[in-house]
From TrEMBL:
InterPro entries attached to this UniProt entry: B-gal_small/dom_5, Bact_Beta-galactosidase, Glyco_hydro_2_AS, Glyco_hydro_2_cat, Glyco_hydro_2_CS, Ig-like_GH2, LacZ_4
Catalytic activity: Hydrolysis of terminal non-reducing beta-D-galactose residues in beta-D-galactosides
Taxonomic classification: Eukaryota, Viridiplantae, Streptophyta, Embryophyta, Tracheophyta
Gene Ontology cellular-component terms listed: beta-galactosidase complex
Beta galactosidase small chain/ domain residues: 452-743
EC number: 3.2.1.23
GO molecular function, one term: beta-galactosidase activity
A GO BP entry: lactose catabolic process
Protein name: beta-galactosidase
Keyword Nucleotidyltransferase: no
Protein source organism: Carya illinoinensis
Keywords tagged on the record: Glycosidase, Hydrolase
């Protein structure tokens, strides 16, 4: 019995062909590597060697950052290494047959492939008077020539499991002819074609592009449809994108008839170009004086052109991981979703965390789990249970990881292929956070246009009652905050925010004048003062401004929001900011964010936080990010998308500190019953991220802009040309209330200790 080829086990044999003359002399000798495998169909299934393999795929254009469409083998190998390391097992050659060496490498590394004919007729969608080529007999021979050439050239490659008749070329009689020829020539593979609605007789796979989750589930459950559904394109990776991808995989993992899909796409198709300053930068449509051009619409990759991964690739690795872990009804279930490999070559480990601090770690001994099998553990019988039982933490998280024991062709031993974090039950009911007051005395002064609150030489806050904002917050004589605290509803638009023309989120935001809000103080007063605290009440209205950033007549009457903020300042230096937001209109579109903004001195560039991380994550793209304690520099938080926009956020943040190298700084956390925050900090202002069209054009400000959001809209990604953030990640324009705690921090204290001090026991 031969060892069969699959993406999990890419077994190859050396095939040698010898040509001899009549006398037995060798005239020629050729060899190649071949794989033996079977592709077949079953009701609602595509089978490889009899197994309904799951396609964890990506579309790939041939692209080199310097040479464009010229192929270099080292670049192909790099692609395959990164794909395999991120659990990608399939590639669609979009949208043409690729370099012959690519197929040999896919055989070698183990990559299922859809090989696609070089046929696309997008332009005819705009032509009213010219008959579509697929319905034109005169085009039949040319289309057939391309399909025949592809099949005959590539037919011996084991990696190819399906032939594609081309991309986005409508549907007509010529496609019927192409499908008929392929089926007559090669019964060992299936035929794929999306055109005509992805369900024509010319495709063996239902292969829609950018179809919504609920619609693919509906098709899979249609008893009259006997073909499997594999998305030929989904999760459009344009800039800060790939939101909602976990929802696709929740459906795929639980719905018979869904067999995966191919993300659009692998690499940002930009080229290195010398700038006016002599530095190289990523250039895209229009940067070469090219007219017409597609601007940045070829920047849709999971990686930058040099194959540096976007943060979203980590989310892809997570939803594509072959070992799944879940906690349900007290049982920890570990599932091996592979079809050929057991867990024999894996080492499982666990890490337990309490309130962001590591409680313990160890090797998790498990019996061998076979393909398509699971093993259950009562979580209370695990080696972490004693740590949980003896800890006083409020939140407990358990991370289960699986790493390779042996090196492979694509990675060294020790590579983590799967890692999942689950939250363990709390030991007590979580109660609202409270300040534990101290007997520290402080001084409140009203001096002209300044309200000054200070506590000896430890801290000092100056608030301007004319603007309702903090003009200075000093800790041990060092200025920490130099501007704030403002309400904020705006974000620098992402590519997905811009998609959809007049229906786009950006168009609707601008139509509502949400991009030009000025926060005008309506009232500011010291409400009351005791020997332990002072309350200052500030009322703002958010008023649209004109192009000159001035308020037009009757502007105040057109205020979009009313915001009431109460500062409660304690002798300890703690400041509780209670914020109530009320929209003045019922016709506002979904909001980009609801939160607070303030600016810190640029020296406060050391960030530590307890929340999701360590990489960029957003409400609809955070499955891969684990809750933990992380530390980074402000400059390293920035994600250099080629076209700037909203970026560098971290989700589900409980507390965060911003400190100078001397440890002096400010602490911020959720407070009361407010949920975890979305946090970002950048040397680039929101206005600057919106202004620049290339990352290298960004100009750093002279301070750090911080956002602490009660709500932040998802980034979306089902596509990039319609407003398609899922409802649960939208922020309706309704009233919101939330609280944030701020306080000074020094080298002698830590964010963790301050956070723990406000938890009720």
């Amino acid at each position: 019995m031969p060892r069969l080829w699959s993406a999990e086990q890419p077994n190859l044999y050396a095939l040698v062909v010898i040509l001899k003359d009549a006398s037995g002399h060798v005239l020629d000798c050729e060899s190649c590597l071949v794989g033996i495998r079977q592709v077949s169909k079953a009701p609602k299934q595509l089978l490889v060697n009899g197994h309904p393999v799951i396609i964890r795929g990506v579309n790939r254009h041939e692209h080199h950052p310097r040479l464009g469409k010229t192929n270099v083998e080292s670049c192909m190998v790099k692609d395959l290494l990164i794909m395999k390391q991120n659990n990608i097992n399939a590639v669609r050659n979009s949208h043409y047959p690729q370099h012959p060496r690519w197929y040999e490498l896919c055989n070698l590394f183990g990559m299922y492939m859809i090989d696609e004919a070089n046929i696309e007729t997008h332009g005819f969608d705009l032509s009213q008077r010219v008959k579509h080529p697929t319905s034109e007999p005169s085009w039949a021979a040319a289309m057939m020539d391309r399909v025949i050439g592809m099949v005959e050239r590539d037919k011996n490659h084991a990696c190819i499991i399906s032939w594609s008749l081309g991309n986005e070329s409508g549907y007509g009689p010529n496609h019927s002819a192409l499908a008929g020829w392929v089926r007559g020539r090669d019964l060992s593979r299936v035929v794929h074609y999306e055109g005509g609605g992805s369900r024509t007789p010319s495709t063996d796979i239902i292969c829609p592009m950018y179809m919504r989750v609920w619609d693919i589930v509906k098709i899979a459950k249609d008893p009259t449809e006997t073909r499997p559904l594999i998305l030929c394109e989904y999760s459009h990776s344009m800039g800060n994108s790939n939101g909602n991808i976990h929802e696709y995989w929740e459906a795929i993992d639980s719905t018979f008839g869904l067999q995966g899909g191919f993300i659009w796409e692998w690499v940002d198709q930009a080229l290195l170009k010398d700038g006016a300053d002599g530095r190289k930068h990523w250039a895209y449509g229009g940067d070469f004086g090219d007219i017409p051009n597609d601007l940045n619409f070829c920047l849709n990759g999971l990686t930058w052109p040099d194959r540096t991964p976007h943060p979203a690739l980590l989310e892809v690795k997570h939803v594509y991981q072959p070992i799944k872990v879940s906690l349900k009804e007290g049982k920890l279930q570990i599932t091996n979703t592979q079809f050929y490999e057991t867990t024999n070559g894996l080492q499982f480990s666990w890490v337990a965390n309490g309130d962001g601090r590591e409680l313990g770690t160890g090797i998790l001994s498990l019996p061998l789990i076979g393909p398509q099998s699971s093993f259950d553990i009562e979580w209370q019988s695990g080696p972490w249970y004693s740590l949980w039982a003896s800890s006083f933490a409020e939140e407990f998280f358990l991370t289960i990881s699986a790493k390779l024991l042996h090196p492979t062709r694509w990675v060294k031993a020790g590579h983590v292929i799967s890692s999942t974090q689950v939250q363990l039950p709390g030991k007590r009911e979580i109660v609202p956070h409270v300040i534990k007051t101290t007997d520290a005395t402080f001084l409140v002064e009203v001096l002209g246009d300044t309200i000054r609150v200070r506590q000896q030489n430890f801290w000092e806050i100056e608030l301007n009652p004319q603007t309702g904002t903090i003009e200075s917050w000093k800790v041990e004589g060092v200025t920490v905050m130099n501007k704030g605290i403002f309400p904020c509803f705006w974000r620098a638009p992402t590519d997905n925010d811009k998609g959809g023309g007049a229906d786009s989120y950006l168009s609707k935001w601008k139509a509502a004048h949400m991009d030009s809000l000025l926060y005008i103080k309506e009232n500011c007063s010291v409400l009351n003062t005791t020997d332990k605290l002072v309350k200052i009440v500030v009322g703002f209205i958010a008023v649209p401004t004109d192009e000159k950033h001035s308020i037009p007549e009757l502007g105040k009457a057109n205020a979009l929001f009313k915001i009431d903020m109460i500062y409660t300042i304690y002798g300890s230096g703690d400041v509780i900011v209670e914020c109530k937001v009320k929209p003045n209109s019922s016709n506002l579109p979904p909001l980009p964010r609801v939160g607070l903004e303030f600016h810190l001195e640029e020296s406060m560039n050391n960030i530590k936080w307890f929340g999701k991380g360590p990489f960029e994550c957003y409400p609809d793209r955070k499955a891969a990010a684990h809750v933990g304690f992380y530390e980074q520099k402000v400059g390293d938080m920035h994600v250099p998308y080629i076209v700037p926009g909203e970026c560098s956020g971290r989700a589900d943040v409980r507390w965060v500190t911003f400190q100078s190298k001397d440890g002096c700084g400010i602490y911020a956390s959720i407070y009361g019953s407010s949920p975890p925050m979305q946090m970002s900090a950048s040397y680039y202002t929101t206005a600057e991220l919106e202004r620049a069209t290339h990352n290298e054009e960004l100009i750093k400000g002279d301070n750090i802009e911080v956002h602490l959001d009660h709500k932040h809209m998802g980034v979306g990604g089902d596509d990039s040309w319609s407003p398609c953030v899922h409802d649960k990640y939208l922020i309706p324009a309704v009233s919101y209330s939330f609280s944030i705690r701020l306080c000074p921090i020094t080298r002698a204290t830590s964010g963790h200790d301050i956070y723990k001090s406000q938890l009720q026991s």
